[in-house]
Amino acid sequence: MRLPAAASPPIAGVDEAGRGACAGPLVVAAVILRKPVAGLGDSKLLSPPVRERLYDQIMRVAHIGVVIIPPGEIDAKGLHKCNVSGMRRAVAQLPCDPEYILTDGFPVPGLPAPSLAVWKGGTRWPRAWRPRRSWPR
């Protein structure tokens, strides 16, 4: 996968966890990596020790926005609406504004920058990382 020419850093990736669960919260995160992280990939495909090691590396080089949506809100509004809203809210929590946003799986209207939906994004985003200018500090 190649990013469109218009995609320039900072680029945010947005994904959720808990969407397949029948109970429990939905957790949505937006992340801007200021530097590449070797070995980064879909967390479901990584062993627990590798996930822990990568977590420490990511926390040192990332801007992160996280939203936790409780089950009651999901029951009241619906899973998809909560997921879309959670993605917008997670991006809004980032300490810097992304110039481009990659969303996992489906388009998200109303984001504050141009965006691209990437099917199976968790397995493809690391290969897409090709900065054309420097990242924010």
Radius of gyration: 15 Å
What structural class is derived from the secondary structure elements?
alpha/beta
Helix and strand element order: EEHEHHEEH
Q: What would the average pLDDT be, to the nearest integer?
A: 83
Number of helices: 4
Task: Explain what this protein looks like in three dimensions.
The structure is a single chain. By secondary structure, this protein is α/β, with parallel strands linked by helices. 31% of the residues lie in helices and 23% in strands. The protein has four helices and five strands. A five-stranded mixed β-sheet has the order 3-2-1-4-5. Strand 1 (11-17) and strand 2 (26-33) form a beta hairpin. Helix 2 crosses helix 3 (79-92). The radius of gyration is 15 Å and the shape is globular.
Concise synopsis of the structure shown:
This protein is α/β, with parallel strands linked by helices. Helices cover 31% and strands 23% of the residues. It is globular.
